[in-house]
Specification:
Chain lengths: 306, 151
Amino acid sequence: MSIFYYLIFPGFLFISIVGLLTAWFDRKITARIQWRKGPPIPQNFRDIFKLMIKEVVIPDTANPTIFLLAPAIALATAILAATMLGVVNMSYEVSFIGDFIVFWYILTIPSIMIILGASASGNPMSSVGASREINQLFAYELPLVIAISTVLFKVGSIGFGDILGYQAINGPFLYSISGVISFIVVLLCIQAKLGLVPFDAPEAETELGAGIFMEYSGVALGAFKLTKAILLYTTPIFLITIFWGGIKVSGFGILWVILKYILIVLLLTLIRNTNPRLRIDQSIRFFWGTMTMLSIVAFILTMFGL
Amino acid sequence: MPLGLNSLKKSIWVYHMACSPCNNCDIEILDLLTPRFDVERFGVVLVGSVRHADALLCTGMVNRQIKPRLQEAYLQASKPCIVFAIGSCAINGNIFRKSYNMAGPVDRAIKEVDPNAIIVYVPGCPPKPEAMISSVVKAIGFLDTLKAKAK
């Protein structure tokens, strides 16, 4: 049954399709904002299928084992994180104590694998990208953890089941002052986690020439693209799960979930299209300054029960 | 295989390779990405690394400095990779034909390292964006022959 979960329903097949459709939605909205027509719906599927038949070039300077293992592990862990989230939302009982922390560890592994793969490729541009990715990882993790701990503080437990159960009784966390503040903080941190535009210094196409992904080609690049698409699905669902009442499949519940999901993706896309790229020192100052302050304010408000 | 090749026809990622151009063709290439022509409708995306590219857009006469770099970039690209020779200079050297630093037009430089390379010629000085879009259509025809070979 767990194989079925991992490969078919809340797992690989389902999330790849939804993730790639979301990536298409992101591209289409971007095109419409720039007054273009934009790509057709199957575009992202075509990109992945095309990358499957392309040749995989391994540079002479690379360490082939790590270079090729990194995308595979990134994809596998991204699927695992998404599956965990899906299964927990399907029934609260499967949640175990501390699965929130486990989920959080697993969600960090794709970023680390991207760093490892970029460092293993032996390209100077990639290593600059990798160092920026490390800096950014340290920058956004701090406010993110504080903002999420407001939720854990309110519930008094570190399990998805308890968080969802608490919200089912007392209403979503989003409908309170501290909830709104932490939601904004987590949304911006997710923007950095996905590597979208104001925080895309590691990837910087015009400056580093695709940076961390520079030496990747063929299936390996396809695996990274799929990982990004899956993370684009996982992180909004994570936001809905911990702040916005979780996923209810009964009746109109599923319609509401789809609307919330589209709204969050739309917000991410709009932020991406209306901001210029930040330098790495600017983005670190942003996260360790403003965002950390905001998340601490949210935490203090939580202590007063707001 | 047919699924991959069919997808390749609808999703051509291009890498912009400036082989000592006068920048006029480059401006026309960038026009392709603007709202008026918007080649992302056909899945064409400009990428930053030659490893991601399915097509090299080469502009300009190839001089002695750029020739080894062009050949290296072609060899480093992951195959199948189409080469577009854009503009008169890239096709035959145009007014620079008899220049002292001319190291052969794009097709000659590429065929030195790979005799079977697929090269698409787009004439014009500079070629219109419409001409480039039509050349992409012709390149897709080449890919059909590739598919026949694969069978």
